[in-house]
Structure formats: C-alpha cells, structure tokens
Amino acid sequence: MLVDRHGRKINYLRLAVTDRCNLRCFYCMPEEGLDWLSRSELMTYEEMLHISSVLLKMGIDKIRITGGEPFVRKDFMSFLARLSKLQGLQQLALTTNGVLTAPFVPELKKIGLHSVNLSLDTLDQNRFFAITRRDELPNVLNTLEAVLQHGLEVKINAVVMEGKNTEDILPLVALTKDASVSVRFIEEMPFNGGAGHAANLSWDHWRILEVIKGKYPNIRKVADPPHSTSYNYQIPGHKGSVGIIAAYTRSFCGTCNRIRLTPQGELRTCLYGSSILNVKDLMRSGLPEQQLQEALAGAISQKEEDGWAAEKNSNLHTLHASMATIGG
Questions:
Q1: pLDDT tens across 93-150, in order?
Q2: How do the domains of the chain map onto residue ranges?
Q3: In this protein, which residues make up the domain named Radical SAM core (predicted)?
C-alpha cells in the first residue's frame, strides 16, 4: 500500500500519454502551440504499461489517461486495450477534448472503460472557436452523445473564465435535466503554457454557485464521494448532477489520493508541485523492479500536505507550464 507522510493512501494514477493537443485553448497554450516533446523524450507505450503494472502491484487501483489529448497519439486504442487488462486495475478512466473520440466510443465501452471526462467550456460555436481557436464543437457534441448512448459515466469539465464563457454556466447546467451527466465547473488555474494570459479568480466556486442558485434556488448539496475534487449538488427533478471544483483556491487538497506521470515520465505528487522523480530514466537505466518500487515509494511518501505547500516548495516555472505538459 502506498501511503504518504500525512497518512493518506495513494491509489489513483493520472497517466499522460502525450503533450500534444489538437486544440489551442488560450488559457493553456499560445496559438502556435508549444515546443512539443520529441518521440525519444516520451515514454513508450511499453514503458507506460510497465510502470503502470509496477504501481498496480504497489496499491494503485485506478488509472486515468490524460494528455495533451490522448487520441492524437498513434495507436492509442491498442495501448488502452492492453492497459485495461493489467492485473489489479479496478477503474480505467479517460479525459479527452472529444474532437476525435466519437468513433472509438463503442470500443471504449467494450474494453471496460469506466468513465469519460469531457472538456467542454461552452455550448456556443462562436465562443468555442474563440476559446479553443478551432471550429470543432460539433465533433465534441457528437462524442458527448455517443458516450451517453453507450452508457458510460460522463463528466463535463468546464473552466469558468471572466468575459469568455460565464454565460454558458446555466446552459451547461441545463444538460443535467434529461441526461445522466455530471457538469463540473472549474476555477481557472494559472497553467497557461507561457501564453501571457493570467488566471482571474473573480469567478471562484462561491460565485459560480450563486449564479446557479439564481436559476435553481432549490439546488441542494449532496454528499461528496471520498477524495472528491468537486463540491457536488443536485437539482430536484434532474437526472444529472452539478459539481464545482475549487482548483485555484484548492480547498479539496487535504484528502488527495493521486499522483501524476507526465508524458516524459516525470512523477508529480501534486499539480502545483515540481517533478520529484523521472521514472522513464530509471526504467531506461535498467533499474531492477524492486529498486524501482523503493524509489517510487520513497518519492510518493514525501507528497505535500496540499497544493499551497507544493507550490511554495516548487520551482518558479511550475505555474507557467501548460496543462498539456503536466498531465491535465
């Protein structure tokens, strides 16, 4: 069992398979994109399967695949199918922007994918283009429809941004009326890829909730699952639910049970922290598995208490990285 120095059991791995993305969201990266990692810098699929297998033996039982955008990496579905068969894996989840995902949804269902997190900041085509710099909303909505039709658990993740999409809060909430979808609103974070855009916390979780209450005064708080990153709510008569993630104010950090592996194999115990171990380099050095487990356990045991402590002890460049390079 993996346990950090605060007594928390760590059982959740977020594994990023690529830093590349087919959108150019202004709050994540510049319009021209990033300096993408070369193929040799990325972990191979075999390395990802190996480190996943090692961590599953150590107590990880849930893996979420992130990016960048996972579907832009060649042969991704073949990798995902192999990953799904690893012993000890109880939940396999995926975060995607939905641009390329819809045709693969039947296969995702077949291999036993548990849930999909769909990044979707607006339902308006013009605002979608303004935010992502790409005209791909129809493809994203096709993915949403396909995921619902195939009975996969789905969460919509929407970053709330001043002057960009606050008018989309209520239309997104309305999706929960007739669909079993969780719509989660996320405070804007500072991981902008050096794009020159600064996060604006004028829309914190309390303000977001007040807007929703203005339309749905009978919305009620429901119990949050263990280790939940969101405060969860239910509107009477709605099939779905609403969540608000205090990602910038970080009020959920105390129960964190997750670690992250970046596409280049860097282990991070907090989104706001620095890399503390490069497992790709350790694997390529031929380190025996027992020693690899010891290195992982030692690094994970030093997980910071919360995001504020991690940020304080990180290097100064962490907050100017892109979400695409640190695992979404």
A1: 999 999 999 999 999 999 999 999 999 999 999 999 999 999 999 999 999 999 999 9
A2: 12-326
A3: 5-226
- CATH superfamily label, 12-326: Aldolase class I (3.20.20.70)
Distance CA 276, CA 256 (A): 17
* Element holding 144 (H helix, E strand): helix 137-149
Residue type, 191: F
Partnered with residue 231 across adjacent β-strands are 244
Please give the DSSP secondary-structure letter assigned to residue 290: H
The residue behind tokens 């021209």 is 32
DSSP for 47-99 reads: HHHHHHHHHHHHT--EEEEESS-GGGSTTHHHHHHHHHTSTT--EEEEEE-ST
Phi and psi at residue 156, in whole multiples of 5°?
A: -95, 125
Give the three-class secondary structure for 322.
Answer: strand
**What's the length of the chain?**
328
| Kind plus residue range of the DSSP H or E element containing 154 | strand 153-160
Q: Are residues 74 and 55 in contact, defined by beta-carbon separation less than 8 angstroms?
A: no
What is 185-220 written as a DSSP string?
EEE--S-BTT-SPPP-TTS-HHHHHHHHHHH-TT-E
